[in-house]
Design brief:
Elements (H helix, E strand, L loop, with lengths): L3 E6 L24 H15 L3 E5 L16 E4 L2 E4 L5 H4 L2 H10 L3 E2 L14 E3 L5 E6 L7 H9 L2 E6 L12 E3 L5 E3 L6 H10 L5 E3 L2 H5 L6 E3 L2 E4 L4 H9 L3 E4 L3 H4 L10 E2 L14
């Protein structure tokens, strides 16, 4: 297996559920077991470290969701679009993420004024074709999709999220490294379901059932032929294994209390546009 690009993670030292910005968060009713969260995070970190360098970002007090580094920004090559968060509770995370990217020598692509965008939580590169899937409806402003297309130089396909439980694209949509797609259709508007069907052949679409979706099975980290996730039903595991993927399950239920799982806890620090089958990279 080829060594993957570095992955950004942030230790959950300040992780808790202290406010409500999605239906999963129930402050006062759900209490995070901090020790268990630490153990689950470290287990994920050690698992991913088998295939990728894990880069750690120092967490800042007062920002419990900073652990979800997928929302730090969107990376393409050495460029990054740093997130502009929709909810006031997370806006203070952006300066920390910005300083991190600047310290690593990334070229910062500033967002247009008043455009909300939540990074790789709502923008996922296709693994088979040179395009970006971008979500909107809850956290990211669809007005930013055309802007992303211009600065990244690729097609951007906008998808409307309609179920508040799946408030970010990466909670219900996971492009896989063979060009196929793991997703939960009911999280999307009918128009968006048709758009997905028009661009991803039926034989490449893996549509999960509600049980898997609510276990955040689509919030997975895919590295080469390995899929790392919190949970997978026997049927989903069999389907992915038949497609040649190796499934690694690691419990992350403490983070589900805040509406996050494996993908939310990670950000790949080097992304490239896919080269279509049969073509050579320039």
């Amino acid at each position: 297996m080829v060594r993957s690009s570095p992955i950004l993670m942030c230790p959950p030292r300040h992780f808790e559920v202290s406010y409500r910005i999605n239906p999963w968060m129930e402050p006062g009713h759900v209490v995070v077991d901090r020790d268990r969260a630490q153990a689950q995070w470290h287990a994920l970190r050690e698992l991913l470290a088998q295939w990728a360098e894990v880069v750690e970002l120092e967490p800042a007090p007062g920002f419990p969701d900073m652990v979800f580094t997928a929302n730090a920004g969107l990376v393409l090559g050495r460029r990054v679009v740093v997130s502009c968060f929709y909810h006031e509770e997370r806006k203070g995370e952006s300066p920390y993420f910005l300083r991190f990217f600047e310290s690593r020598g990334f070229e910062i692509e500033p967002l247009p004024e008043s455009i909300f965008f939540e990074g790789a939580g709502d923008a996922l590169f296709d693994r088979g074709k040179p395009r970006l899937w971008a979500g909107s409806g809850w956290r990211t402003d669809r007005r930013g999709h055309a802007w992303l297309s211009r600065i990244l130089g690729c097609e951007v396909l906008g998808l409307e999220l309609v179920d508040p439980r799946f408030y970010h694209l990466d909670t219900c949509f996971c492009p896989l490294n063979d060009g196929s797609l793991l997703y939960y259709p009911a999280a999307f508007s009918e128009d968006s379901q048709r758009l997905i069907a028009a661009h991803v052949p039926a034989e490449q679409r893996v549509a999960v059932e509600a049980q898997d979706a609510l276990s955040f099975s689509c919030n997975a980290v895919n590295i080469d032929r390995v899929v790392v996730l919190h949970a997978a039903s026997a049927a989903l595991r069999k389907t992915l294994e038949q497609r040649g993927f190796s499934i690694r399950v690691t419990p992350l239920d403490e983070f589900l209390k805040a509406g996050g799982s494996a993908k939310c806890l990670t950000l790949k620090l080097h992304e490239e546009l896919a080269v279509p089958a049969g073509k050579s990279a320039p």
